[in-house]
Amino acid sequence: MIAIVAGAPKITAQTDEASFLPKHYESIQASALQEKAFPASFTPSALALFERNDGGAMNDADKAAMAKIVQGLTDKKIKNVETIIPVGEQTTSKDGKFALAPIAIDKKTQQSEEFGETAKHLRDEGKSLTSGTDLKFQLGGSAAQALDQKESSGSADALIAMSTVVLVALIVGIIFRSVLAGILPILISLVVAMPTANGVIAYATKAFKLETTPVLSAILIVVVLGVGTDYFLFLAFRYRERLRAGDDRKEAVANAVGRVGEAIASAAGAVTVAFAVLILSSLGMFKALGPALAIAVVVTAFAALTLAPAVLTVIPARGVFWPGKKWMNEPGNARFTALGRMVQKRPGIVALASGGVLVALSAGALGYNGTFDLAGSSMPKDKESMVVQDKLMNGFSAGAADPSHVYLTSTVGVKLDPAKFEAYAAKLSGVSGVAPVAPKPQLSEDGKTADFTVLLNNKPDSNEAIDTLTDLRDVAHGQAPAGTEAKVGGLTAVYKDINLAMAHDYKLVFPIAGLLILLILGLQLRSVVAPWYLMASVGLGFTATLGASTLLFQDIKGEHGMMFMLPILIYLFVVAIGTDYNILIIARLREEAREGRNPREAAREALRHGGPTVAAAGFILAASFATFMLAGNVFMLEFGFAMAFGIILAAFVMALFFTPALTALIGRTAWWPGHGADDRHAGPAPVTGSHGVPEPAGRH
User: Could you tell me the pTM of the whole model?
Assistant: First the structure.
């Protein structure tokens, strides 16, 4: 850890949505064309919004004051500010109550902290210059959103981290009735695994030129601590079980690792594969998340399989479980014993009931509607950039803040014919959802490219605007005069292309990840049957989680949609991490079967002994993800609920009911081509008692 952290390079997160798309998408090609043909033009990085303090229409004195303020901002020569356009007729609302001064900021700073810092200087200086006038100055646009988002996410990260740490310490401490047991997973995960993972991620990002994303930090905290706590619990429960069986401390640790180590390694492998496959995604956002989280899981699993056992070996057992006094007493586990008996006696009913719950919730996923309002969903509505965005929608065309652009370019090496512009603009204006397009576009210096600015009637990040953009592209391409070609760009075009990239990812990433996880399960279980119904149950868990989230936020809460990235995030955490609990319980089922029990007896014993571990781990991880709901914005609320609910389904419906019930029903066929009890000698070395004597089958 020390060696890695000491030399790790510093990596800066990217915030520009366009930077996450490959170059073959039209919106990226249009952006490159704009830079080449219109180097002096710019898409505003910030928008200075003026309005009267009393909310009335602006008069001549107000206009003079605005001109003075804009000139004052220009004279300040704020670092990275390239141009501030004075307020004009085109940037004043029709009712005269709002006026805009577009601001260009050096594009090279967009991926750095300077972008937001420049916005802060503009905001502070603008308010200072406006003092003493009848005007109010507010700053919006992408730079202001970057500033506000950083301030929001900084406090949110701290809140999430603190809440997660407190939850883990309290819950694990209560489970083991121990102070040290509650602290150990935090020390192993956050003090050792987390900085090590961050260092390795930084090295990998630099070496392989991977993308970075600002949402990684908060997610990484929960993943490392959540997964680390899960693996510690898997180990600690079995360690305590072996101590109760009569092993001394070192034998108990060795036997615990021998029994549960393979399950931890397989679970970590499944999660790592699920994350790593995102490197195949078309979107840099997921290219960034996938490998980083895969590295974090590998590091955390390595700590759980090496450092955690070493710590348990060094610290006396009484110290680990202090001040609890009954940790050596075998509890009745009445609830899980009763659950095991129920699954043993009525596996068909249990499988039908639990499966029915998953199928019923899955129906809600049919109504899912993705939205692209990244800034609005990731920040409180009272942040200044969000207030400006709302006022822009009310005072101007909803698409005025981020207009779309149609670039018409000559393909035959001659200048464009201006006589054809009016007819072409009329065709563009005829697209439903498009405001009238000016017939005189901006021409490049060589006369070979024309820029038609197109205002959409809906917010640039709305689904309606994306639908309009689809039609606009069809018309722009189809009606381009002979000898020319059209490229449609702008923020809405970026969102349209993100939509296309997501569709590509669903068809490529999910199937490959599923096949690789299937392979890992097959190797771990030595079976070609069990992995299939395990994957089916995990798939149902995915659709049930998405369905429940859709029902809550769209149908009950009345949101018009949820974040477009939510399905992939559910895949990342519910499918990937939720597989851990299935692996743990199915590994215990196989272990019990190999010790001579029939399938129904194996289900009973697996739930009796493994049930408390799964329940505790699932509850802690769900509670950890639920802390995201405290962040105070819509995206984190949706994310936190979906992850927590999905983990609850994975642990308490799939792992404790659906999987053991199906295994009991299928019987020995579940382990084909292995033979359950008949291949018990092919597994790990027999567990030994305190004097090295092999234990009788069935002793736990």
Answer: 0.77
